[in-house]
């Protein structure tokens, strides 16, 4: 993957239910991370604090890096982006990533750092997002609405937006 410059990191936490250390997913990756809780309604919503045009960017999601295995243990999760630009303050969510809906997408799937962006992140291309603007990024455990065992919940170190436009 060609390394692009990050255009912006999540700046704040808009909402969190059942999340351990929610502020640890704000800003640049620093090996501190939030864990979305094990309860059925656990969720974290990160605020980019400005609207971004989805068709021009990819979302880079930094997972918890595990040094002893030199990679990440991918968690079953649902990631959505949202905007309220035309909805009078009600966020309209668009799911952009699900890990866990395929039989090979098990909890804590090892992904080596050489297969990741910047050693600990995966990239979600947002060019197909119908609602072209987003400001918020929501993380939930998969399947949504079911509790998760301890150590099988989403762990987020940071998120950033990178341009997919050619220079």
The average pLDDT score comes to: 92
What is the H/E string?
A: EEEEEEEEEEEEEE
Kindly name the structural category: mainly beta
Q: How many individual β-strands? A: 14
Categorize the overall geometry. globular
Q: How many angstroms does the end-to-end distance come to?
A: 16 Å
Helix percent band: under 10%
Helical segment tally? 0
Low-confidence stretches: none
Portion in beta strands: over 45%
Assembly state (oligomeric): single chain
Based on CA atoms alone, the radius of gyration comes out at 15 Å
What does this 3D model show about the protein?
The chain has 167 residues and is mainly beta. It has strands at residues 6-9, 12-17, 19-20, 34-36, 43-53, 57-63, 65-66, 71-74, 77-83, 92-99, 109-112, 121-125, 133-141, 155-163. The strands form three sheets. Strands 1, 3, 4, 6, 12 and 14 form a six-stranded antiparallel beta sheet that branches. A hairpin with a 4-residue loop joins strand 7 (65-66) and strand 8 (71-74). The protein is globular, with a radius of gyration of 15 Å.
Summarize the structure.
This protein is an all-beta fold and 167 residues long. It contains no helices and 14 strands.
Key attributes of the depicted protein:
167 residues; mainly beta; 0% helix
Present the secondary structure layout.
Blueprint: E1 6-9, E2 12-17, E3 19-20, E4 34-36, E5 43-53, E6 57-63, E7 65-66, E8 71-74, E9 77-83, E10 92-99, E11 109-112, E12 121-125, E13 133-141, E14 155-163
Antiparallel strand pairs: 1-14, 2-5, 3-4, 4-14, 5-13, 6-12, 6-14, 7-8, 8-11, 9-10, 9-13
């Amino acid at each position: 993957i060609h390394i692009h410059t990050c255009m912006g990191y999540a700046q704040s936490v808009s909402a969190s239910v059942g999340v351990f250390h929610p502020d640890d997913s704000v800003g640049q990756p620093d090996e501190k991370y939030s864990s979305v809780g094990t309860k059925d309604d656990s969720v974290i919503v990160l605020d980019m604090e400005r609207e971004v045009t989805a068709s021009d960017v990819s979302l880079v999601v930094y997972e918890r890096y595990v040094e002893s295995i030199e990679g990440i243990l991918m968690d079953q999760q649902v990631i959505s982006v949202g905007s309220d630009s035309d909805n009078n303050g009600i966020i309209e969510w668009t799911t952009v990533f699900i890990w866990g809906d395929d039989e090979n997408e098990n909890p804590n799937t090892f992904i080596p750092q050489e297969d990741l962006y910047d050693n600990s992140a995966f990239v979600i291309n947002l060019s197909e997002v119908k609602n072209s603007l987003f400001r918020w990024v929501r993380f939930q455990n998969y399947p949504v609405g079911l509790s998760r065992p301890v150590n099988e919940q989403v762990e987020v170190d940071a998120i950033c937006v990178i341009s997919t436009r050619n220079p």
